[in-house]
Amino acid sequence: MELKTRKDDKVTIIELEGRLDVHLSLEIEQAVNDIIDKGEKYLLFDLKGVQYLSSSGLRIFIAAMRKLKSIDGALKLANMSDSVKKIFKVVELIDLFEIYDSVEDALAMFK
Amino acid sequence: MDKEELNVKSETSTVSYVIGELERFCVKHKIESDITENIAIACDEAVTNIIMHGYEGKDNGDIHVVFHFDESSLTIELNDWGHQFHPPSEISKKPKFKLDQWEVGGFGLILMNEFMDELRFSHDEKQKRNNLIMKKYLE
Q: Could you report the predicted ipTM of this complex, rounded to two decimals?
């Protein structure tokens, strides 16, 4: 699966969209893994286009964060809708991630 | 009173099909969109659990889905013939998550428990069938 990505200095911005159920999430998780394996250590997920997130979608971010932590990298999330935020809150993962209202805000925190 | 049934295979692409049918069923019965969203997440988690754990990701298992609507509630019933599911006696809202020790699973049950009013798991040993009934009260 090809993810929509762009670079801003050292940060790789990954734009996710659609319904992050198990089918799509397994493919995205593998694609993100490949990006990290290619040497990208600073990832910013832009969730503007994400309409729906199940626990399978949470795996994408947990797996990426775990991998990045082991190589001294960093991960941030931006543009999270209320319904996606609700899922993070219910499973009490909201404090595990750095979440920003916009891509610009998140990028500023990488600097 | 209304009822719709689906017979699907345990493919991961099945999840979006079942959720699409559930959302259509909710629209048909004029259920509010925020409630529909929550019910859809719970159903997604339940079907995903069956596919990934009950059938270990194999795509040839059978799943029987029933949506029931009456004026006071919406009920989703799921039947599968995969590995027997043993639900925990208590579904914790605090999984004591530690990034380094993270293993797959656990969050789905928490979301199902949060978004539905009743969860009833049972297993028919004779038919080797798991049955899950999830109910959401609408009043």
A: 0.90
